[in-house]
Input
Amino acid sequence: MSSGHQTGYRVQGGSPLQGTVFVQGAKNAALKMIAASLLASKGRTVLRNVPVIEDVRRAVELAQAVGASVKFHEVERTLVVDASELTSPVLPAEISRRFRASVLFVPALLHRLGEAVLEGGVGGCNLGSRLLDFHYRGFARLGATVDEGEHEIRVKADGLRGAHLYLDTPSHTGTENLIMAASLAPGLTVIDNTAQEPEVQDVIAFLSKMGARISGGGTGFITVEGVRELSAVEHTIMPDRVDAAVFAMAAAITGGEISLVGASLDHLGVVRWKLEQMGVEFATQGAVLQVRRDKQLRPINVVTSPFPGFATDLQSPIMAVSCLADGTSYIRETIFDGRYMLAGELNKMGAKVEVADTVALVHGPTPLHGTEVTAHDLRTGIALVLAGLAADGETIVSPGYQVDRGHASVAARLTALGANITEEEVG
Ligand code: EPU
Output
């Protein structure tokens, strides 16, 4: 794994960004589709518009570790997966321990090999206590046995069958994982309280092309009729709405004007309304989305919630933008209990962010000053890059790996917009 790289982003702030940026394919759809492609026992799957990010590389390594032949043609942003021979049910500890999406490989391993072993359990990305109980309880309801040992999790099944499942909260990955497990389980599966994120719908579109029979996507109630087999197909992954919104916020925080290619206003949803309230202007020019900000930013209220609510993944970036707003912004995080690591880092840069339990108050406007800051997780990392773009002097955001987990070619794309940013060894 390349997580040992001691790289960081060196950002020299101050210039308003101008120009065109290409939005990457959606991370949170791509990871599921890589896992889902292992459900096809013959033929080769072709995935297009795959983001060239570290999390995708980890998913490719996991697929290879269980025996799939996977080629990531990075220049073409295309993955070709041949899963006709899976050889091992073991998801190795050095990846699964730190990569929560590892659990998405369980359905394919169960169907193909009758067993999945998560060596070393499953890690996450420092967002507080992130449980996977809905996944395991769902697999059990479908007929699997789950042994959660101290050092590994072992899931076994002679054959899954349809069942009635209920999610206590509309878990994004939980919904996708249980749909995958149910797709090849004979009989009817009903899943209540499902996630409605656009990525879930894209994963359903991909599985449906493979031959799965799924209805209710985009509602809170999904039914899956098990089929005998799924085939290898070609699919183009939807644009990454978090990546698109982060670049919109780069225009907002620097007072610039950016054309986004590959962004959909429909996917931005409430994020668009919130940024407009802050003084950001959006205009569609055919298929290109224009974003600019030239007025003083106004403060904002944000409460994160499952789609169509404000995405938790954008809570950190909008916190960075609020530092420049004229007044106090109110942020409440309702999805994860540990997603305010950014506050302390922004305060090192001169911000005034107060955190009490699930609420953060951002007292603006405060000028930001460059310094060394820590990317505790992916979205904290990209939010600090945004802060660095608006700060005076030099900001160093490390480890760069956290940013690279989820956003492709950040330095190159921002440089093309006129930013002064490099990713380099930081010792
Ligand atoms: N939860 C449980 N039990 C479960 C599953 C979830 O209690 O079995 C709880 C979690 O602890 C959390 C909440 O439910 O408090 C929501 O978790 P969810 O399962 O919806 O999150 P996820 O599927 O693990 C995905 C994205 C996250 C994104 C969330 C919310 C992927 C690979 N990850 O995680 O993305 O924040 O949905 O939209 O799809 C990111 O991209 O930076 C990122 C963290």
